[in-house]
Amino acid sequence: MNQQVLQAKKDQVTEIAKSISESGSVTVVSYQGLTVAEMQELRKILEKEDASMTVYKNTMVRRALEEGNQPSLGDLLNGPNGFVFSKEIAKGPKALTKFARYHEALVVKGGIVEGKVLDAKGMKEVAKLPDKNGLIAMFLSCLNAPITKFAATIKAVAERPAAN
Fold first, then answer.
1. How far apart are CA 118 and CA 73, in angstroms?
2. SS (H, E, C) 131-142
3. pLDDT of 134 over the 70 cut
4. Are 81 and 108 spatial neighbours (Cβ–Cβ below 8 Å)?
5. 3-state SS, residue 113
6. Which of 8, 31, 101, 121 is deepest in the core (most CB within 10 A)?
């Protein structure tokens, strides 16, 4: 094999391994049947969510997973696949699940979340998780609730008529 071609493949494997390690989640999708316009629409949606979709050869992804000491995706790497890399765990799967509701040709096959392999059902559960801002809001409301109740109690005691 030509040395330049071999080096290009090694560089691509390194690039894929880096993308996997920097991502909160990697989702494997089957995109057969989507038109070029639909693929462009999907990529724009993913870009807004700080995620990206790329098509790689399955063998390159297998090698990148081995190189990065990541779990094997096994049967998910059959047929033509797209790989969605998302910095936040839920944003990529959430955008894919929403897009797949209106475009039946897009099928979420599974993926990797924090070093664990999930099937399609697992990735759809991940998509239901709130994003970072949602989690912060939930946490702050939990912190705020006792203070609010305490303040309401103090106000009720202060407004109560004095006993003679």
1. 9
2. CHHHHHHHHHHH
3. yes
4. no
5. strand
6. 31
CA separation for the pair 87, 160 (Å, rounded): 53
Asked if 105 contacts 117 with a C-beta cutoff of 8 angstroms, the reply is no
The pLDDT value recorded for residue 83 is 92
**CB of 118 closer than 8 Å to CB of 85:** no
C-beta of residue 26 within 8 angstroms of C-beta of residue 72: no
Q: Sign of torsion, CA 64 67 73 77?
A: positive
Q: Where are the alpha helices (DSSP H) in 106-163?
A: 120-127, 132-159
Reference 64, options 103, 109, 28; nearest CA is: 28
Distance CA 26, CA 89 (A): 8
Please list, in sequence order, all residues whose beta carbon lies within 8 angstroms of the beta carbon of residue 132, skipping any fewer than 6 positions away: 88
Name the strand (E) or helix (H) holding 118. Answer: strand 116-119
43-65 pLDDT, tens digit per residue, is: 999 898 888 888 888 888 888 88
Of 46, 33, 54, whose CA–CA distance to 94 is shortest?
A: 46
